[in-house]
Amino acid sequence: MAQTLHPNVAGSLFATDGKAHPLQDALMAVTFVLGVLSFATSFFHGLHLLSSWTGLVGLAVGIYGQWISVTTRERFVLILGLGAAGVGFLISMAHGGLFGGLISS
Predict the structure, then answer these.
(1) Residue 57 pLDDT exceeds 60
(2) How far apart (Å, rounded) are the C-alpha atoms in residues 70 and 96?
């Protein structure tokens, strides 16, 4: 019974190759946290600086994480974080942007 020794994880969303990927896992966690923070704070006009910068950094970290990701689990969480960071970044850019109010023209 070969299937007992090698379970079929090809169809699993959280399929892994059985190896540790500490860098990819760290990038995945940072992207997700920054994305959620950017998305949550983007709905408050006064927090547009925090939201825009966390969104921009979340996008940069997430793009690099996607580039070096190995498993489906990493890619899935990275896409969730990238989506939240992107939406938060764009909403906060509409509320004042990266330097809104700090640099006068």
Answers:
(1) yes
(2) 37
